[in-house]
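RECORD TYPE: inverse folding
INPUT: structure tokens
STRUCTURE:
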């Protein structure tokens, strides 16, 4: 097998695994980690097959394109190494018990941010090398040499932009969405290279400054869109009382209830919506099970502003809220929780802790003498990670250790309920 053929085969496998990884842990925790290891192995193969580039890094003249490639390649290497290290830190399957350099919260933040940057950088890397692939593929696929290719690229890019701001139920559509974004960013890299080739003199500082500015503008746009105020005009979260003298309350926060287009929230990738149950979130279902077992009153914690439909944009907004220690405004808050002795609090883990809306709810009341029983769902977060902040928000209340509903079966949740919940 020719070296060039081996390179293209390895790169194609690398792209396929990358697209699977970008779907988060929709395939499950263990498969995600196995794919991560496979990706790292393929990345090492890619480096081996292209080692001549590293050998010659200090030789010859640096054109504008070469400067850009060097900056991108070195940043990609650092990003992949960081991704592997942070992945080990947050592992719950393959690497449990190994010494780590990050705590789980830091590791999770770095892993998620690194994944998005790495995806964009790798896509641009493909675009920078597309000319060579185009020469080879153009011999067999004449489409690459026609104007129709530009039209197709434009249409694919539009779909990629649309998929970034929307979620799909189908794994296939999610994969196609990420593929479209990869092609979009790859095209940017390709046309940027062509533009730089026409420039006679471009300094490394100029390329670095231009790239940094582009990243800053892009990040600012993403954060601005994620934090945009979307008034919640359909909240119906009144306190549902079973009896006037009830001493037990179930209060829960669900992403499904704070997303305007909840029908389009992904059913499997992010534990948002319970598959097969229309308009019922996973958290809503678990809260309903707890309410039925305890006979408690029930209340859904709902923010006055919607979160983005797209999961990645929701994580951006959640991270900003956490970093700034924000208290999102809630709607239809109960006047008082004085009658309740025990309050079950359910929530998904966002960046290792309960959503900040839970802080708004708990801090709104004097909970002295009450017992808080937390239950949590998450793909990769251990319940104790957010325990300390939950105790802080609950003031003088007694806060028990959270139950991890996570992706557990209904049988295990039912067993927790049968055991008396706490």
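DESIGNED SEQUENCE:
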């Amino acid at each position: 097998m020719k070296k060039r053929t081996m390179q293209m085969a390895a790169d194609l496998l690398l792209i396929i695994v990358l697209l699977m990884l970008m779907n988060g842990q929709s395939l499950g925790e263990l498969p995600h980690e196995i794919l991560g290891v496979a990706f790292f192995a393929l990345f090492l193969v890619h480096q081996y097959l292209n080692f001549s580039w590293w050998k010659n890094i200090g030789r010859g003249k640096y054109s504008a394109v070469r400067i850009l490639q060097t900056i991108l390649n070195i940043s990609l290497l650092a990003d992949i190494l960081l991704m592997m290290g942070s992945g080990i830190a947050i592992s719950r399957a393959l690497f449990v018990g190994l010494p780590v350099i990050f705590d789980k919260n830091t590791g999770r933040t770095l892993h998620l941010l690194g994944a998005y940057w790495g995806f964009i950088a790798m896509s641009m890397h493909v675009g920078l090398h597309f000319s060579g692939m185009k020469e080879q593929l153009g011999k067999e696929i004449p489409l690459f040499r026609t104007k129709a290719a530009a039209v197709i690229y434009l249409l694919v890019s539009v779909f990629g932009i649309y998929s970034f701001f929307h979620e799909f139920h189908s794994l296939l559509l999610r994969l196609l969405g990420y593929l479209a974004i990869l092609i979009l960013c790859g095209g940017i890299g390709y046309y940027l290279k062509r533009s730089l080739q026409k420039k006679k003199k471009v300094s490394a500082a100029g390329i670095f400054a231009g790239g940094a500015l582009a990243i800053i503008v892009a990040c600012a746009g993403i954060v601005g869109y994620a934090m945009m105020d979307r008034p919640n005009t359909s909240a119906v979260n009144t306190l549902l009382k079973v009896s006037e003298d009830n001493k037990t309350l179930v209060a829960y926060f669900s992403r499904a209830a704070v997303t305007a287009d909840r029908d389009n929230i992904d059913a499997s990738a992010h534990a948002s919506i319970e598959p097969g149950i229309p308009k019922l979130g996973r958290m809503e279902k678990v809260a309903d099970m707890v309410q039925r077992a305890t006979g408690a009153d029930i209340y859904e914690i709902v923010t006055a502003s919607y979160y983005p439909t797209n999961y990645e944009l929701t994580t951006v907004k959640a991270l900003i809220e956490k970093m700034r220690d924000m208290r999102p405004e809630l709607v239809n808050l109960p006047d008082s929780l004085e009658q309740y002795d025990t309050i079950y609090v359910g929530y998904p883990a966002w960046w290792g802790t309960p959503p900040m809306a839970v802080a708004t709810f708990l801090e709104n009341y004097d909970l002295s003498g009450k017992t808080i029983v937390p239950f949590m769902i998450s793909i990769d977060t251990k319940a104790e990670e957010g325990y300390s902040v939950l105790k802080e928000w609950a003031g003088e209340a007694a806060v028990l250790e959270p139950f991890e509903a996570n992706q557990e079966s209904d049988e295990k949740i039912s067993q927790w309920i049968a055991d008396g919940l706490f």
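NOTES: Strands lie at 248-253, 297-301, 342-348, 371-377, 398-399, 403-404.
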